[in-house]
Amino acid sequence: QLQASGGGLVQNGGSLRLSCAASGRTFDSYAMAWFRQAPGKEREFVSALSWSGGTTYYAESLKGRCTISRDSAKNTVYLQMDSLKPEGTAVYYCAVTMRYYSGSTYADRYDYWGQGTLVTVSS
To answer: pLDDT tens-digit profile of 73-110?
Structure first.
């Protein structure tokens, strides 16, 4: 089970750190990712981390403004987001894939999902 948290209301240009805590089993041997879904839009890829943590992927629009990381001791993955923009308003979901150890930008390659945490960026 994945539990996402850390969302909230932030001003344009502000920062947030999202957390995704795993329970019931450890996911530190699997690739994990963050996706987001804005109102009326499809879910889109944000960032992914390979099983080893050695490879990271970011959506082009977010490169340089967010960092994905993992704390294996806490069985938690983080997404640090800086310089947030109003278009970043969305529900953010974490996910894990048991099949693609390098991670993926495709949502259908992920097997377990958290419930989502809402991020609202005010203009």
So the answer is: 999 999 999 999 999 999 999 999 999 999 999 999 99
The predicted-structure confidence for 39-49, as pLDDT tens digits, reads as follows: 999 999 999 99
Contacts within 8 Å (CB) and 24+ apart, 68-72: 68/33, 68/34, 70/28, 70/32, 72/26, 72/28
| CB environment 12-42: b (16+ within 10 A), e (fewer) | eebebebbbbbeeeebbebbbbbbbeeeeee
Give SS3 for 26. coil
- Shortest CA distance to 19 belongs to which of 6, 32, 29? 6
What is residue 46's three-state secondary structure?
A: strand
**Among the listed residues 69, 35, 41, the one whose alpha carbon sits nearest the alpha carbon of residue 55:** 69
Predicted local confidence at residue 53, as pLDDT: 84
Enumerate the β-bridge partners of residue 71. 76
Report helix, strand or coil for 34: strand
Integer Cα distance of 109 and 92 in angstroms = 17
